[in-house]
Amino acid sequence: MAAPMLRWCCSGRRFAFARVGCGSCHRRGPPTGSTSNGKRGQSSVAQQPHITAQKPRKGEPEWAAVVGLEIHAQIASNSKLFSGSQVCFAAPPNSLVSFFDASLPGTLPVLNRRCVEAAVMTGLALDCHINRKSLFDRKHYFYADLPAGYQITQQRLPIAVNGSLAYSVYVGRKPSQMVTRTVRVKQIQLEQDSGKSLHDDLRSQTLIDLNRAEGQLRVDANISVHRPGEPLGIRTEVKNLNSARFLAKAIDYEIQRQINELENGGEILNETRSFDFKLGCTVPMRDKEGKQDYRFMPEPNLPPLLLYDSGSLPSGADPQQVINIDQLRERLPELPRVTRQRLVQQYGMLPEHSCVLLNEVGLLEFFQNVIKETRAEPKKVTSWVLNTFLGFLKQQNLAVSESPVTPSALAELLDLLDRKAISAPAAKQVFEELWRNEGKTPAQIVAEKKLELLQDPEALEQLCRSTLEAHPDVVMDLKRGNPRAINKLIGLVRKATLGRADPTAIKEVLERQLSS
C-alpha cells in the first residue's frame, strides 16, 4: 500500500487501418494466477449505443482506431508515497507495512518529498504545465487489497497537465522512411498504489500482500475503432499490461477483434478485458455498462500541494520545506529529443542514426567515447559503430556492455585507417581479431598479420605498370567501355601486394597510367 506511483493519461491517438485477418481466442472466465487490481476499473459511460459496421467512403481507409493509454509508473524512491515504509522489490509478503499502510484508525498520510520532485521532473520532461497548486482526493471503492476503502489520488487538480511527447517511427522498410509523431499527455498525477491480490484457483482463495502491487510499469489501454468520418466507436479497456511488447500485442489484437466483430454484424461492448500473453489474445474480465460511482471527495488529511518557482518563492523560505520548479528544471538530464538534435547538428549524422544510438542501451556512450579518442571523422565513426560494431553485437545477441571491443580499441583502429596505415578490408580483418578478445591491440594485430599498407609510391607505380602489361586483354576490355574491368585490375594489383595496397590509391595510379 501507498507505494509511490505516477499515473499519466495519454489522449486518444488515431490510426488508419485496412482490414486484415485476425485469429480467434476462446476462453471462459478471467485469467488465473497473480493479478494486481484484478477486479477494479475506471468509471465508464453507461448505456452507450452499439456501433455496427458501415461501408467505407471511396478513397478512405476502411477503419480508424483510437487508442488512449493510462500509464502507472513506479517512482524510484526509498520509501512509499504516504508512509515511511521501505520500498523493496521481492520482499517477503506483508513485511514492509506500516500502520498507515494497514489503514489502522488514527494514522495519517505524510507526503514523500522525493515523489513530488519526481512528478514535477516528469511533467517538465513531457512539456506539461505544472500546476502551482494541486489537490489530493479520495477515490472510494471496496476491494480486499485496499483496506481503507479508498485510494488517495489527484482527480480534480493534478500536479501536471497538457503535455506532449514527440517520438520517431518508421513508416516503411527503409531506415530513411522515418517520421516524427506527437502524442498528447492529458495529465500526470501522484497516486497511492494498492496492495496485490494473489488468486489461488485451486484452493479458491485470494491472498493479500500490502507491500505494494509491484511492477515498474502498468498500462491500461482504451481502444475503439470506427469508420473515418463517423462518430467514435465504443471503447474497451485492456487492463494491467506490464510491458511495451505486451501492450503492442494487446492493442493490435483488440483492434482486429473489434473490426472482425463489426464486419460480421456483431456489437462492441463497453467492457474491461485482460491480455492473455500465452494465447496472445484479450479475454473479458467484467462489463462496464453500469457506471461505477467512486464518490470522489477532497482528502481531508492532506493540505493543497503548493509549488514555487524562483520568482514566486517567499522571502526567507527554507529550501528544504518548499519545492522549487526552476531548480528541478536545472536537474533534468539531457532529454532524448535534445540529444537527437545535438547528434544531428554536431556530427552531421542522419536523424535515423541518432535514434538507433539512443535506442540501444549503452550505444550512445560507446559512440561518444570513440569520438573522444579518435581523429577520424564523425561520419566514419558513426558508420563503424552502427554497421560493423552493432552488427557483431546483434549476431551474437550481446549487449553493448558485453562487447569484447572497447571504445579505445575501436578508436585506435579508426586512427590507423584514417592515417591510411591500413586499408578498409584490412581494418575489417583487424576488427574480427579484436572481437576474439585475445588481448592484442590493433597495432599489434596489424604487425603480426602484415596488414600495413604499401607506403612506397614508386613500388606501387611499378606494380600497376607490370599488371597492365601482363593483362592486355583486361585493358582492352576496359577501353571498350566495360567499367568492371578496372575492378579486376585493382584486384590483381592487391593480390600481388598480398592485400597491402590501398584500393583507392591503386585506382588512381591505374587511371593515370591508362590515360597517359
From TrEMBL:
Coiled coil: none
Alphabetized GO MF terms: ATP binding; glutaminyl-tRNA synthase (glutamine-hydrolyzing) activity
Enzyme class label: ligase
GO biological process: glutaminyl-tRNAGln biosynthesis via transamidation; mitochondrial translation
Biased composition (Polar residues): 32-51
InterPro entries: Asn/Gln-tRNA_amidoTrfase_suB/E, Asn/Gln-tRNA_Trfase_suB/E_cat, Asn/Gln_amidotransferase, Asn/Gln_tRNA_amidoTrase-B-like, GatB, GatB_Yqey_C_2, Gln_synth/guanido_kin_cat_dom
EC number: 6.3.5.-
Mitochondrion among keywords: yes
Top-rank lineage group of the source organism: Eukaryota
Similarity comment: family membership: Belongs to the GatB/GatE family. GatB subfamily.
Protein name as annotated: Glutamyl-tRNA(Gln) amidotransferase subunit B, mitochondrial
Organism: Bos mutus grunniens
